[in-house]
Design the sequence.
């Protein structure tokens, strides 16, 4: 029996109204973007795209939670980052015209926005404001990946979970998140490369430290800077 994904119907225009970069476009630029973009609903657990796929679209998260990851030659899954409401992915690969370097999986039922490569490149040629957004986005992404290398190699599991959660609250990479995040312990484990049980232990440690509050199916961030700097 086919699974039905229950997500409120929203127009492309309404979706774009919530994006940081779309607000800076001219009316003519925005009209073209609205006409050429489309949305797609992805079931939780399904692949959004695979490593090695040609990169034909810039992808944004209207609602949902995605994980960027790859599998090492030894068969170990390496999680790079989570993408939540307002986040966009694939800008670097579009610029370099190279195959995708990572898998993207929906951790829950999600609705995504797709901008064709031709539209993306046209905006680069015609909008200084869009270019400025991308420069900031790429810079934030680089800083995130540098920190990921650090905490993957140097930090204990509690600190890795703390840094992983903190990374979700980047105002440029995931601007649609408030301080209360609807996320399960299993999803936290998926994003941080830990088991559900180990993620649960880490969340308890972080809650006792006064950095967050854990409720059923959600986490409220109390001290974002503390999460970013947490060491076991």
Sequence:
């Amino acid at each position: 029996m086919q699974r039905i994904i229950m997500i409120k119907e929203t127009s492309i225009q309404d979706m774009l109204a919530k994006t940081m970069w779309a607000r800076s476009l001219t009316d003519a630029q925005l009209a073209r973007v609205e006409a050429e973009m489309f949305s797609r609903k992805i079931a939780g657990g399904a692949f959004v795209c695979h490593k090695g796929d040609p990169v034909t679209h810039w992808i944004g998260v209207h609602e949902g939670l995605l994980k960027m990851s790859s599998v090492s030659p030894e068969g170990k899954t390496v999680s790079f980052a989570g993408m939540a409401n307002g986040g966009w992915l694939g800008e670097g690969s579009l610029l370099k015209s190279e195959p995708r370097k990572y898998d993207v999986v929906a951790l829950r039922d999600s609705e995504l926005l797709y901008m064709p490569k031709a539209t993306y490149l046209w905006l680069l040629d015609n909008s200084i404001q869009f270019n400025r957004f991308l420069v900031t986005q790429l810079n934030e992404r680089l800083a995130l990946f540098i920190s990921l290398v650090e905490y993957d190699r140097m930090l204990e599991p509690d600190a890795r979970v703390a840094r992983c959660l903190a990374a979700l609250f980047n105002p440029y990479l995931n601007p649609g998140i408030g301080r209360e995040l609807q996320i399960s312990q299993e999803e936290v484990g998926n994003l941080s490369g830990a088991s559900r049980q180990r993620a649960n232990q880490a969340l308890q440690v972080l809650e006792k430290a006064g950095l967050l509050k854990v409720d059923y199916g959600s986490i409220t961030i109390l001290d974002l800077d503390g999460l970013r700097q947490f060491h076991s």
